[in-house]
## 1
Amino acid sequence: MSEHHLKTPLTDADVEKLAIGDVVYLTGTIYTGRDAAHKRLADSLDKGEALPFDLKGALIYYVGPSPAPPGRPIGAAGPTTSYRMDSFAPRLYGLGLKATIGKGKRSQEVKDAMVKHKAVYLGATGGAGALLSQRIKAAKVIAYEDLGPEAIRELSVEDFPLLVINDCRGGELYVQPDLASALA
Amino acid sequence: MRTIAASYIIEKVADMCIRANRELPADVLAAFARRQAEETGPAAKEIFRQLLENAALAAETGLPLCQDCGLAVFFVELGEDVKIEGMGLRQAINEGMVKGYKDGYLRKSSCDPFTRKNTGDNSPAIIHFDVVPGDKLKISMMAKGGGSENMSRATMFAPAQGWKGIKEFVVTRVAEAGPNPCPPVIVGVGIGGNFELAAINSKKVLLRELGDTHPDPAVAKLEEELFTAINRLGVGPMGLGGATTCLAVKILVAPCHLASLPLAVNIQCHSARHKEVVL
């Protein structure tokens, strides 16, 4: 398991280097998006409209941050559970998205899309919202402001700590639960 | 008859909402530290290290522990000899919650189920009232996140399915939830009652101290059995593998209908945020 310091946007070469269990420290620009924002992105694509940010080489962080207190760019900002965005992710990977960031399992369709389009799924530690907030240096809403915590934000991150959960070769880091032993 | 001013309740509830979201209970922090020492794998140890650092940072900076500050759930025991002055108790608790979530820069996560439009102030608070003898008012508040709540389930078993069925259901639920609800989790189990009581009990029992022992030795043994089984799953902290899939299992039992065996499993993430106040 190696450690990588990556800058955004990500290239195919960046993604190919990553294997499950690798630690990634990410610096650059990432975009937030969760349930309601993904619905709107999909609606825009259906209508042939431009998206609020360029998907090529981009990373989407599944997060709905808490409000920024005075003097801080953002509140707590840990990952939300990713499976709720599974129905949208393959299409976005197909359009150039290189990584999604969240927590929890992805569907087989999402894993297949990562292999097909050379992309990854990165895990951030769930429930560590105050800790992860320290690595976010700036935040601004760039779309869907009416969605409040679900609006799309552009985040500037420095050494944002991530773990490779699914790589572009079909690997998966999460442990398969041993139900047989548990119920024996 | 003792009188409590609604304005006092509003202040207290606002304060407990803010503090619950910034300060993990001492028993949860102690469990993190103990389990960090006991885990042998580097990934599991590292998650506990991050969670302890996160808790220290939240206390230091005033940021919430988790961006999902939850729906605000209250369990209220109102003494029969208490009168609330100024407004209704439900309204006072809701106003206190709204104030706390605003003043504490906490995320408002309540929305319309169809339009998904945010209510804007985290209202309405979800309040379970009980009336008890005496002249005290006890309010317990939980900040319950959506990720762990989504992994919770309720079912109506046939009586013949018994303990074996219950155990299989609970352990399988935690296994299927895997990394999604932010393990290590705390598992609340409501057994008996009826459809809604099992669910409410499965949440209410999460207010118990992590390290306490059920007063009924028979139920304590069942809690231990589930705890051991769940931790044999190997899911581990954040699903990365390890000996700690759950920090505790708590069971609340109630009598049920001859025809039924109601069962509910409420999963609580490791950020087990709750506060109690007695007025």
## 2
Amino acid sequence: MRISRRLFLAGSTSLILTAPVLSKAIASNKRKNNLVIIMLRGGMDGLTAVPYIGNNILTKARPDIGVNKPVQITADFALHPMLKNYKSLWDQGQASIFHASSIPYTGRSHFEGQYLMESGGTQPYFDKTGWVGRALEGAGIKGLSISLPMPLILRGGNDLDSFMPSKNKLPNDSTLQLLQNDYKEDKMLWEVLSTIRKRPIAMMEPKSRSDRDMKGLAKIAAQQLSDPTGPSVAIFDIGGFDTHADQGGDNGEHAKKLKQFDDVIGTLRKQMGQTFNNTIVASLTEFGRTMSQNGGSGTEHGYGTAILMAGGLLPKSRIISDWPGLEQKNLFEGRDLNSSIDARSVYASILARVLESDHQKIVKDAFFNSDLPDMTKRIFL
Amino acid sequence: MKPKSFLRKVGFGLRPDEKIPKDPLNWAKSQMNSVPNLIWPGKIYSEQEMLDIRVDFTTQEDKIQKTEKNPATAKVKKNKLYRSSGRRYFESYELAIRHHQAVYGNQPVFERFWHFWGNHFTIIDKNKLATFNTGAMQREQLRTLMTGRFADMVYDMTLTWPMIKSLDNFKSRGPNSEFNVNRRRKNKPEKGLNENHGRELLELHTISPNAGYTQDDVINTANIMTGWGFIGGRKGVEAKKIGYQGSLHEPGTHTVLGKKYKTIGFSAKTKGKNQLRDLVEDLCKSAECRRFISWKLCRHFICDDPKPEMIKMVTDAWENSKGMLPQIHQAVIEATWKFGKSNDKFLSPETWLIQIARMTGADWPGDPKIFEYDFKSKLNYKQKKIKYILAELGHLPFRAKQPNGFPDTKDEWLSQEYLVRRIALINNPIQIGLYRNSLPLIDISKKVVKQNFDEPEKFLKFLNSLELKNEQSKSLISILCSRKVLKA
């Protein structure tokens, strides 16, 4: 039986008893800002997404997987041709790229790297919460993950939901109430079920197949973020960037994945309407890839990569970088694009802008008070 | 620990008609000494047959893609090919064999370990491996390796067709191999090393990053692995054999973790072939490997954060038996019996699904006869529902996205949406083979509690209070999605 409005209200009443968290925006009657993080798993190649075109050093190192039709955006850099929606945002002054940046991890393991890009720490498998979760906890704001699991990056927050459309229906709330009683002795189970019971009706309705592709999910995220009482943070998860073989150039595996990323951004832009002006979208990956192609027309695990940002909270379009160069002597360990800035600095400044907080507070709440320079001016002035 | 909880911690719980073993510990341990036969009565396709079917399929699909210019005709042709090749059929079929074995077999503890190793040596979801190859490989190779040495399991799994395919080693070539020397002489661009498989052999399959290896160790592991790949392919047709080609191997001695691996022999064809075997033997002998694998086993069966004394029981057995898997498995079972607590381990979706099928006596995964297929028709719902349901629950075992496989802790498996999927599934129990004409659901719920709960009284009392009203499905949800059944 589908949840009816009456039962839904019953559910939310019981929620109020469990210390609800009002969004700061509602409390102060202001427009809320939104953050969308798009996680790109497998190691997104910053040199494919945003190739350096200042000279031919990159095309020489990648004879079979070079981007042959780069879309030039500055004297030195171009966009991959698949990033069409991103390019149109660039043209509207709503896209900025932080190039040659990485989380502070050089071990080249996906799984350690992905753990750290989500935990925001420096020791793999150590911190049990994520940097977005910790920041949200401090700010009292809702977060939503568009995925089956609750990703590490959001953990630690106190009003979170994970969501994927499904055709199946939940039983009525009195049955859920029975389970809720049974879960009393398990805090985590209890909290997870509480959130389910207070979900808005739109999320409870059976969904069709088309809701499940990347664009469909982006639509749902856009609806949720546009709702003044809805979440302020959404997390996406796109895998498959680990192209050791047949990476491709203009087309091929890496290009396909970049297109998915671009589809999410395009759909958010279209569906969010005005809300997009109060939003910032940013990519996140565990590492970049080697400068040169390998034996199988692919690339190996590297270090520095690019952070692609978009949204109306950005003042203008630009490439922000202390470009380290691609000459052999400038490569990290002689093989990878180097990282000129700890990516966490960038994310801290983004969070500070979205949460209307300051960089240092975010560094303290979310990044263990690490030594992270303030990037606010470089990104937002 | 309490016997009934133990049976769910290392197995899948008791069927409605099953007697509780008199000595649960030895009942479980004795299952590790032999590989149970598959009880599936239908056709069992050999790994080679599946490889033939696969290569036939990929060759024909490729041909359609290249020759058929009209998209509409191409679609019709492909659809026909999908049916004749079983493109949409085989994964469900493999899953049905796997679940049938777990639900009706008499060595459920062995099956649990089999599932564990399948995830340890994950074949990622790419290149149609889940459709044609992963299941057959796990049945035919992985399963039979479980009564031997861990080192042999690692070596053989490293060289399975799906592993070589998914981790790209067939594309890796020694920078100074005969192959590349010739290319340089002809002024052709070199085709170099691919680190992917070498890194995962160290990180995921044997010693883990805690062993402190460096990038050079990864490169040298990849060097040692060069030469291993496909042999005997033709243009436009995938090769079916894994073998060693000396001409692709990076010559010379390679050092990994301080140890030098020399080449043995003079034949250009086989020179360097010994290095992988030597390396795997050393990796599996190391204390880091013992610790990592033992920890992972304890985490799977006992609790998310296994304690040193649990792990020590397993590493001791490993040392004493020189890495024999039956002894290692038995030590895991003993450690569970000795240190395990009831309802301490949150179960993965697939394990939970199999447990509820076994405990309720549901018609799951369905009569093997319904899985017979003519390779012409559209698949019917019953044939594909096992795949559909596991996908809904987020746990198609042959479709992990990354080579570290599916996660194994509560933090990863418990989210709003994961829980919604489980509750919604039981809300419509026909899906798992609990039909309206089978026992009333409330009686099934009671049977599950009586058979499988160490302290059934409270739950039986609750179920009795429901009986007067018409709350059949409520009773089932309240038991199968209870804290006690979600965890073991």
## 3
Amino acid sequence: MSRLSSTIEGWRSFDSFAAAGLISCLDPRTIILSALCTVIAMTGAGKGEVMVLLPLTAFPLTLLVLANIPPIWLVKRILPVLPFALMIGLLNPWLEQGTVTLPGGAEISTGWFTLASITLRALISAATALLLIASVGLLNLSRGLAGLKVPALFITQLQMLFRYFFVIGEEFQRMERAWRLRSGSRRGRMPLKLAAQLLQNLFLRSLARASRIHNAMLARGFNGEVPAGAPLHWRLRDTVWLAGWAGFALLCRFNLPLLLGAMLTGQPQ
Amino acid sequence: MSHHYLHFNSVSFTYPDGTKALSEVSFEMYHGERIGLIGANGAGKSTLLQLLAGFLVTQSGSIDLGGLKITPSTIAEVRRTLGFVFQDADDQLFMPTVFEDVAFGPANLGVEEPELTPLVLETLKRTGIAHLADRPPYHLSGGQKRAAAIATVLASSPSMLVLDEPANALDPIARRRIIEQLRGFTHSQLIASHDLDLVLDLCHRVVVLHEGKVAAVAPPMTVFKNKELLEQCGLLPPLRMQELPPEGPQLKVVEGHHHEIAHHHHTAEK
Amino acid sequence: MHMSDALISPEVGLSMLAIAGGALALSCHRCSREIRSGEKLSQIPLMGVLGAFVFAAQMINFTIPGTGSSGHIAGALLLAVLLGPAAGFIVIASVLLVQALLFADGGLLAYGANLFNMGFIPCFLVYPFLWRPLVSRDSSRRRIVTVSLITGIIAMTAGAFTITVETVFSGITTLPFFKFLMVIVPIHVLIGVGEGLITASVVLFAFSSESGELFLDQKNRRIGSWRTVAAFAIAAALLAGMLSWFASSNPDGLEWSVARVESTKDVGQQPAADLLHQKSAELQRSTSLLPDYQLGTPKSADSATAGSVIAWRTSAAGLIGSALTLTLVLLLAMLLKTRQRRSAVPFSKR
């Protein structure tokens, strides 16, 4: 299956999770803000930190559990994201000069901790982004953003993009499939000239589509103002959820796990 | 005010590239009438619809709708009374959910919130898609999309519907449902279609276009029985009126297709 | 290439988010005014559909001529040429946001940085200051192809450069600045070739097609108005301000961008670097509740060895604590889930 086809399939799957589950009872703004808190706390951890990051995985895991998303779905989507961060991170064990003595007495480069830290960061951030959209859904996400005072035109643009990706994407898919069937290539790349022709063709169709949509809007009295969707309701549970996760992120930022662990193992600070 | 609801008065239109799409088109339509607009590809059907909706501007002649002449200055008012259902429902359903799409028209006409939601829900119920209100359009089937597209138009309570291929690419049951639905409406309807069976089922009269000219305006049976006219305009009678043997078409089996031959023998033995 | 949450610091991430978000808000303000005035009613569907077009087009892998490699378009330059900088920027912003969420390309905090690298640079710098002036006098076929090719390469390379700068300033990974640039720039030159050629082919097609008049005012628009120049100057000043503020508040990042490249020298021994270390250590002490906790953040080889024993004792505690916190949170989630199961109604039955 081509990247385009798998994206169309994948995009549909995002919407199917969002409808069910506890997350749909919360205001989308709550989820967006708590995800941001988590990511900011994560990026705030110092270079090479691993322990501080570990508890932050609780946020994406909670979303995973509450939104009933199959873990394998998440794994499949996270894997393609890792290579870039790993590529950058892998240099560290050789570039860094500092060493750390392990309990057994062996000395290793601090770079390994940097690498581990980067990998963990990549996992947490990818999981948070994917689960944010999977648990909230495209539509509610855009409503949440509107509720967070993101300009109305951008929200409309986002919704139009969601809406017409399926239409344009499927037109594209048919053309691409026709090329694949004739070229005999299953995953191959397209020669530039052919790609350009394909895009020109698709561009023309897209323009025609845009002008038909414009007509449809005019026919129903469009005057430049796209009506906003239903207003959102912030409830007590939203405050509790956001305060909880923001507090948790803050505690993680200031090494809560260490405090807890020290208390348990009876070690002095 | 005339007793006609819609009046095309020798309307002509030529595209900038010189293609003459319509010449001297005249016909009229009565209140509550359903008119079928038929003709081969390129006969001028869609140009005619676009002129009516004001997407194109009449170059000569005039179009009157409910006593109002359609011009760029009256078009906003004209569109209040005209419900335009596009051929591709994807063009019509541009909002994120069915509910918001249905609300788009009335909201632009100034209907505000205490009244808007009940109006939308009522319209959805009337078109039988109340359960789809919160769905995004890309999660709808072809028939559901078509029903939603019709709902978006009905919500603005137009007095006339203009439909471009209302049953295009629908499965037989969805097609049947749409036909029943349109028959139930009291609006004047102008239906452009290649589906002549649908036209036969629904329309009081038919306008036949041929190369931009009106070739005939008559009741459907009169038009469809006139083989000479149909042939001249590049049309065929509705399937229902084509002469078929009562047991269906006899397809011959091509030699060498063993499977089909076996099947043939089997049915013959029966 | 996307900047990643894994490599960005909150200072860099939030500053870039502020810059890109500000540019987005201004663009939206400007465009919605045009749309409301009725001047460009067709802009909304056009932007939406072209966004979908670019998003789909990004998934087509094509071979870059003259090399064995393949690439796909980013599309911002194309959008800027077709729709103008402001509308083009809004569209590419929507595309990048969807990428950040659907493919986890980059991440939430890095969105600002990515929007800057892949949207702001092509739309507000490359297009108005290079593409348009270069094409306005002579818009022949050959000219458009050449200019698109060159500006495509410039836009891509500039984006690669800012990624490197952002990564270095964030200081999450050790990155030899110049060596890294040596690797990353040639790759982006190649990607830029594909970007430029595809942009040219679609732009030429758009200008010559029947719907060309849609874009004609874009093509003929006066170049480099004072307002654009002013906006550019303000953005540049803002960026410079942020960077210098950041540089002074986070000497760590600067330190190794300068020092690490010469990897043979021992950084810890240099007096200047020592001063920086002291400062950064002070900073760390003032922001951290647990100053002793320094696993993996040794400032030099010496302090690392000295601190390693303490680091390991504390990290054992950290590990246990982490596991405990995680378990507690997950237990809570499970509890909520069982409650939810009793009350939830499946979507299909709503």
